[in-house]
Write a structure and sequence with these properties.
mainly alpha; two-stranded antiparallel ribbon; 67% helix; globular
Length: 94
């Protein structure tokens, strides 16, 4: 879903397609935007670079200033994705 973020954004702007269904689960484009805004800066950066912009892990690590290991980027991304999913689930409840 995040890999197609920019395509979905174009559909929202051109056709007003704000909801999509993936594997039986409905997602709202604006909930994704709101969820991204709730992430701390480093988690948000890792999620955007790796999941939306499809950068490789090591390239993301270098861009984020990690020169020896890419492990911190994995951690930032994984925690960010978990928080994004939790935000989505909270939005569904309300």
């Amino acid at each position: 879903m995040l890999k197609n973020y920019y395509q979905w954004k174009a559909y929202v702007e051109d056709f007003g397609l704000t909801y999509i269904t993936i594997e039986g689960e409905e997602w709202c484009f604006y909930d994704i935007l709101d969820g991204l805004e709730t992430l701390p800066p480093r988690q948000k950066e890792a999620v955007i670079l790796m999941c939306i912009e499809d950068h490789k892990e090591w390239d993301t690590a270098k861009e984020m200033g990690f020169t020896k290991w890419s492990t911190p980027v994995q951690v930032y991304r994984n925690i960010g994705l978990k928080k994004l999913l939790a935000f989505h689930e909270d939005q569904e409840k309300n």
